[in-house]
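In response to reviewer comment 3 from the previous cycle, which asked for concrete evidence that the modeling workflow produces usable outputs, we include below a single protein chain processed end to end. The sequence was submitted unchanged, and the resulting structure tokens are shown without manual editing.
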Amino acid sequence: MQPTEFDLHAQLEDQHWWFRARREIVFAMLRRELPPSHDRRILEIGCGTGGNLRLLSQHYSALGIEIDPYAANLAAQRAGCEIRCGDIAAAMRETDFVPDAVLLLDVLEHVRDDRALLAQSLALLPPGGLLLLTVPADQRLWSRHDIVLGHYRRYTQASLAALWQELPVEPLLLSGFNSLLYPAVRLARTLRSSQKDSGSDLAPAHPLLNGVLYRIFAAERHLLARTSLSWGCSLIAILRKSLP
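The workflow returned the following structure tokens.
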């Protein structure tokens, strides 16, 4: 991603409907499996500009890893916890931080070898530790937005689940989310496909529209507490590392 996109993320992620709702859904799913306590440790890999950690560091002992120096600098100013810049091996060198949960929130689509990154992240966890991840879904939604953000792919539930086959994990959840707004998102992507110079879909929204979209998307945390959703603009998964 370009610095301009990171600046935009930092500007929008506290108020924009998509960031706020995703953050609330992730937090709801996480605290269901790992009740908040500052004795519990959360590691976010690919923490971007720090918006998720800004919330999580209020409820857990948190650490962020970000490979892009520009984004890591923004995160260090905003996250309320330590941010380490570099790849996983470099960032975790000389630290005794052993996470109870690792978060990969819209990260796997940015790397060529997503299975290797998933395995490397899982290796940081002790047995019984949790890995929570989100990714963009449905290749039919592929657009200029994905290109600008540096995505290699969008996922199906099957292609995502294939990443952890033969890895020592127990899947606790695999579900679509941002499902209620899927028709609107697909229509918007179709209409924007003719705009050759368009950037990402992220942009400030009118406060009234922003509030409506936020409420619709965030309401899915109640659905996900009861059932898995078969489709959506994104996918969410929770894995537990198997006991030896």
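Strands lie at 37-45, 60-66, 82-85, 101-105, 130-136, 169-177, 234-241. We consider this sufficient to address the reviewer's concern, and the full set will be provided in the supplementary archive.
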